[in-house]
Design brief:
Four copies of one chain form a homotetramer.
Chain A: E1 3-6, H1 11-19, E2 25-29, H2 35-44, E3 47-50, H3 54-66, E4 71-73, H4 80-88, E5 94-97, H5 103-118, E6 123-130, H6 140-147, E7 154-159, E8 166-172, E9 176-184, H7 188-201, E10 207-209, H8 211-218
Parallel strand pairs in A: 1-2, 1-3, 3-4, 4-5, 5-10, 6-7
Antiparallel strand pairs in A: 6-8, 8-9
Helix pairs in contact in A: 1-7
């Protein structure tokens, strides 16, 4: 697999580069990259992994469509019209978009849905614990997990020390409790998830994919 | 629902009786019960919940078949031929058999299977923690959970204090971990599970059912 | 040890009675008890364990002082003047007063104090999880634990299912975390704690004692 | 504080160097260092932090004694006679020796001792969970924690995924449980602990110190 990294000098771009084998990394795109360089890279790569900015990806996505190069994109902050346009290129090339590339979190989401459907009358609660530099509370991931449930869970969030990211969901009845939790040991989990998605998407037909597609199809 | 309890003076029989509404409990069968009493009870009940002995249930099961009274049975220790004979009555009346009536544990088993199929390259481990009077180690439930997995998990067991029963399963990679755990607050969880199964089985056609049938069908 | 239970027909009084050996239980005081009965009981007991009402204990405490019978009291809701008067009897007989008789929670409080003094620059947070019938949130015990700390901890509380009572305190830095937690398996822990206090107080000199006295002196 | 790092090219030496401010790092000693360089460094430093080899530290320690430069040493594998000799230099300069520089683990050890003395009749168990590259099982830290207890705890160890290091100790009775646990988010915790010890030891009088001295004195 030949990978081009868009946003190669950002925090996530660097993490992805570190995790790739030397012979997998074809080249990186940053603000300084010239148009002809970019076009050559997109043309010669099996897949583009993008953690850049919305302006940047909007420029690159048409090239990906032109050369049928699949895209794994984790850039956030699209305007609504930009996102619609971004998605439209998926008729020509496979695009996987996600705001969180941890495989474990998506599996956790599946487990919550399955558990709620069986343990119908159990109370549900979610606790997230993150480092004290994190500004949003509850975390985006907690909101994503809650959005997978029919019932509104009780939610609590702590911002303490240097915790990379803990999410715990309890299903509790009068006499028993099932707890489903996820813990990141470090932040490479997200880079690693994006690379796994890249390996998968190069074999897909054009279309717009989410993490749930990757997680569910894999198990078919 | 009219319930007859077989093994009504045993520990589990008492728990079940305590949890039933007064108008749900039709009568109990114990060693002292006379044949005509038993026959009358089985005939007039919507369901028999049995936590007795194998001798006892082998006597009663033919009556249940005769009167098409569904059976929920948690008695353990059948000989192979007895169990085959016991099962054969399920052609006439629905029988649900289980060695553990905690709904949560069966849901946990489903979650483990689902998670293993997605998180293929994660290490798996199970810890059970039970009170120090428990003799088997690992617990039967740990062995049941492990039997649901393709890989052999690492297993550890502690026998300490008065813990009613904790089971924890970890799926661990280099950078993240999903943990699925179950905790019983008390032992009524098993009686309560048997009653829920009783409510379900009275609407089933004759056949031999397990907890997984109850758990899975409920979600259809 | 001969024990008289004041408030013997209440929930806690019954729990205490259940846990005492037959030959330890001398008699119970309830609203129906007559004055001469009460006086006789207090006179003939080694210790009074009281979980009644403030009116009731205010009547009994003078008898305890008169006969030098030690008192373990878990009744809550005293008015300020009543509590001052109640305490004044401790010049004649040892009185141990507590709103929570779990030995573990008091040990947990000691551990928090000790840990805060060492891990000075760690963030502190407390989570309590209790059954959904519990009305106060955070729990009184969480407030008690927080009151033992110099820093204000982040606090989160969940009210779910039938959890008897979980308290977790985290000390978290950028690179490590110490967690100190307490879990009740059932509510007998409080009755059992009161009985242990009773055994201890019968050897004390007159004075007003708290759980911390019991916990700390025991370790001398 | 001016720090010289002995074993600067090893894994721990690098971690320590990364954590020091530029103006704190005076220089590093490795196998290639020349005798006069080493002597100059030891003479001009406020403290030597050593994670090297026993041969190396045996050469350096006499210089530290000569120039009264305090030493924080985390090198393992001393022979008995070497260790006796190593310790003997502490009559001239303060030496702090430890096999684990996580402040949290030493605080955990204190908590275990304190808890055992109060919760005398509780069952004790320790679980450690580490990455699957770790060869020793149970971990050295588990053995150290167990050595702080009078009772023999039940011990269980799991070697799974990339867990940097989790240690959990349970004190369990029939009705309640206190759990004291420690979790490392990453391996810098040990480098960071060594630097904190270095800051402390430069104010101490000559003598042989352990982590417990650092942890306990700090709280005076």
């Amino acid at each position: 697999m030949k990978v081009c990294i868009s946003g190669v000098s950002g925090r996530m771009g660097k993490e992805v580069k570190n995790l790739l084998m030397n012979n997998q990394f074809v080249g990186g795109i940053s603000r300084q990259s010239k148009a002809d360089e970019i076009e050559k890279l997109v043309k010669n790569s099996d897949v583009v992994i993008d953690f850049s900015s919305t302006e940047n990806i909007m420029k690159i996505i048409s090239l990906c469509a032109k050369y049928k190069t699949p895209v794994v994109c984790g850039t956030t902050g699209f305007t609504e019209p930009d996102f619609v346009k971004f998605k439209s290129y998926s008729k020509d090339t496979p695009i996987l978009y996600a705001s969180n590339f941890s495989i474990g979190i998506y599996q956790m989401a599946q487990l919550l849905k399955s558990t709620e459907s069986i343990l119908e009358d159990f109370d549900i609660s979610i606790i997230d614990r993150h480092h004290n530099k994190k500004k949003d509370s509850p975390s985006g991931t907690t909101l994503f997990l809650a959005s997978q449930l029919r019932k509104n869970p009780q939610i609590a969030s702590l911002r303490i020390g240097g915790i990379p990211g803990d999410h715990v969901c309890y299903f509790t009845s009068d006499s028993e409790e099932i707890c489903i939790s996820h813990r990141s040991f470090n932040r490479t989990v997200f880079a690693s998830g994006a690379i796994k998605c890249a390996k998968w998407i190069i074999d897909q037909v054009p279309g717009f994919y989410q993490m749930s597609d990757y997680v569910n199809k894999k198990s078919v």
